[in-house]
């Protein structure tokens, strides 16, 4: 089979790789029908995630069909259509029992595309299949479901829930990429007074407005002053960092009110300065986190009833074999307008890459 392989910082290729098989009795092998590219994959390609070794197939989000299961798998069967979670969970360790699957001590956590071969291939081995695969209802399409593998749980759990968004809050989301947009959309579930989206790309700001942002702001036009003006100089109750750069994190610390919360979602490849000389007396709470995906069943229920605007996040569709082109499109959103790029496998009819999904 073929897969998209990390060959070292700045180098990758769609190439022949070994077919996966069941290695442990809790494994499943899934034929990949729909997959997507994550901003974290771009960080891997830059060398920001050093534990990813050259030769690893990238990707941790997919929808597909189970083709083989280990002897101990009970929750899914061959032929079943499933969502592959970005987090693998043993389900038995202390952290899994607390719902902190991303911190799994039993050999799970973020494995796919990091410690083992990932989903950007024709087939993938999924460890801990009973807790890491989600059977899909017929009412949820592959394209809708694949966005629930990572970005929607991440924006919701690490951004909205960790930031404790509440009715009447002013919420500022710095970074209107896929995860930031997911945070904007799911923050509306808690009836904030206003949501402010900050980015540099006009297309992403326009999408943010469609997904529920009340105010949008170019990051180069003093967003902290805008938030101050909107809140009577108090600042935002919750600021969600969804970029992963030192300057955007420091911007968040200038936008938050005393007693407010900063929820860091972005993947940081460089140190960011925490100005405690300015923040120590302001009662600020800063949270970080790797998604646990404990909210995936809830989000699937909402997707099945049309309560999640997943279609508006998809801007480009490619056949899986054109993944190198898809990466180029996704990596340059200012030029391409890309938000979420979705790729279809050889077993599904796909829309040509030139056709933009209208939702």
Automatic annotation (TrEMBL):
- What cofactor is needed? Zn(2+)
Domain of life of the organism encoding this protein: Bacteria
> Start and end of every Enoyl reductase (ER) domain?
10-343
Q: Tell me which UniProt keywords the record has, alphabetically.
A: Metal-binding, Oxidoreductase, Zinc
- Indicate yes or no for the key word Metal-binding: yes
A Pfam match is ADH_N
Q: Which InterPro entries match?
A: ADH-like_C (IPR013149), ADH-like_N (IPR013154), ADH_Zn_CS (IPR002328), ER (IPR020843), GroES-like_sf (IPR011032), NAD(P)-bd_dom_sf (IPR036291)
User: Which family is this sequence assigned to?
Assistant: Belongs to the zinc-containing alcohol dehydrogenase family.
What is the designated name of this protein?
Answer: Alcohol dehydrogenase catalytic domain-containing protein
Organism whose genome encodes this protein: Streptomyces thermoviolaceus subsp. thermoviolaceus
Q: What is the lineage of its organism?
A: Bacteria, Bacillati, Actinomycetota, Actinomycetes, Kitasatosporales
